[in-house]
Design brief:
mainly alpha, two-stranded antiparallel ribbon
Length: 68
Amino acid sequence: MTLRQLKAFLVVAQTLNFAEASKKMFMSQPAMSLAIKSLEESVGGQLLVRTTRAVSLTPEGKALYERG
């Protein structure tokens, strides 16, 4: 887990929107998705539920967000 990955996760968790979070972090959307995917791999579980229309936190993601 890197600081950049954690910060990216926190911004996505706040906005619940990858496009908006990418703009706030000055990252492309693919880079943001990769950062979140890498973070999920390092913690060993899914932190966000992604659909074509929405992003939401899993219980694990909510716990990490509250600690962050």
